[in-house]
Specification:
The protein is α+β, with helices and mostly antiparallel strands and 164 residues long. It contains six helices and five strands, in the order αβαβαβαββαα.
């Protein structure tokens, strides 16, 4: 039953990260859970042997070495790495070990690097700007000749009025 729940957590969530904890007090544990729950990140402790056995025959079997010390799993439907890392930084007794984001297994350093990536919305905005730049330049170039002609005609008319 627990093994099915472990497999379900790994299969149905975009982000599943494994953390090791030291001697956490109940108050610290509840504070962490409350902080992460506000970000829609769930926290769950599974028995290490059951977790390793449950993941043994899945594509997540490479994560099983992380379940040797006292661990817990954080997971969410979306990859919310930045809020998770900031919550972990507030608890010095917790250490991120690694996990899975978007069906890619990542080490601790890779998760930190992933958190530094710009959001998808930012990247889409940059791409839109890059793609629209040539059309903007073309419009400017096409309008420049008309603008020069208009300015030259205005100057010609004003010179003709000065002679009169």
């Amino acid at each position: 039953m627990i093994a099915d729940e472990v497999r379900n957590v790994f299969a149905s969530n975009e982000m599943v990260l494994v953390c090791q904890f030291g001697d956490l007090k109940t108050e610290e544990w509840e504070e962490l859970r409350f902080t992460l729950n506000k970000e829609d990140i769930a926290v769950k402790m599974f028995p290490n042997r059951v977790t390793a056995k449950a993941l043994e025959d899945t594509k997540y079997r490479e994560v099983t070495p992380l379940f040797l010390a006292p661990t817990f799993v954080t997971f969410s439907k979306e990859a919310k790495v930045k809020p998770l890392l900031s919550a972990i930084k507030q608890q010095p007794k917790i250490e991120l070990l690694g996990g899975k984001i978007d069906n890619h297994l990542l080490s601790r350093n890779s998760v930190v690097d992933y958190s530094k990536l710009p959001s998808l919305t930012e990247l889409q905005g940059q791409l839109l700007q890059i793609l629209s730049e040539p059309s903007r330049r073309l419009a400017t170039l096409l309008g420049q000749n008309q603008s020069n002609l208009s300015m030259n005609l205005s100057q010609y008319v004003s010179q003709g009025e000065d002679k009169s």
